[in-house]
Write a structure and sequence with these properties.
- The protein has six helices and five strands.
- The longest helix is centred in the last third of the chain and has 13 residues.
- Helix 4 links the parallel strand 4 and strand 5.
- The protein has a single domain, classed as Sugar-phosphate isomerase, RpiB/LacA/LacB (Ribose 5-phosphate Isomerase B, Chain: A, 3-Layer(aba) Sandwich).
- By secondary structure, it is an alpha/beta fold.
- The protein is globular and about 45 Å long.
- It is an enzyme of class 5 (isomerase).
- Its EC number is 5.3.1.-.
- InterPro entries: RpiB_LacA_LacB (IPR003500), RpiB_LacA_LacB_sf (IPR036569).
- Belongs to the LacAB/RpiB family.
Length: 143
């Protein structure tokens, strides 16, 4: 069973909880918070989730905030993370196929919960194509 890190700020909290309920039994979900609707700073939850993916404790990560931007930017500060901002399943699919992304961020204020679930499922079930894309992915990380 794939082990998945999941995190959100207050704007994404309800989406995180919805996703957890829908995905339980299919994936092992590790919840990095937040655990309520009180205003919080998203990096406090994203960095531990991204570290878990980066160090191999979790295979993938799922993130939510209002726009998806803050959580995506925070996750991408980690050298071993490639986090895509996805608002439709096709973007999640391409982020896996072409960019070998290991985390996905979604904008809770702009998509329906059911669409978020479709995005997550597409992201978690799509394989990296490798080939010509591997060379490009290898050039993403600054050394």
């Amino acid at each position: 069973m794939k082990k998945i890190a999941i995190a959100a700020d207050h704007a994404g909290y309800e989406y995180k909880e919805f996703a957890k309920k829908q995905l339980e039994g299919k994936y092992e979900l590790i919840d990095f918070g937040t655990h309520g609707l009180d205003s919080v700073d998203y990096p406090d939850f994203v960095h531990p989730a991204a570290s878990a993916v980066e160090n191999g404790d979790c295979e993938f990560g799922i993130l939510f905030c209002g726009s998806g931007q803050g959580v995506q930017l925070s996750a991408n500060k980690h050298q071993g993370i490639r986090c895509a901002l996805a608002w439709m399943p096709e973007i999640a699919e391409l982020s896996r196929q072409h960019n070998n992304c290991n985390m996905v961020a979604m904008p809770a204020r702009f998509i329906a919960k059911e669409l978020a679930l479709e995005i997550i499922e597409k992201f978690l079930t799509t394989d990296f194509e490798g080939g010509r894309h591997q060379n490009r992915v290898d050039k993403i990380t600054c050394k």
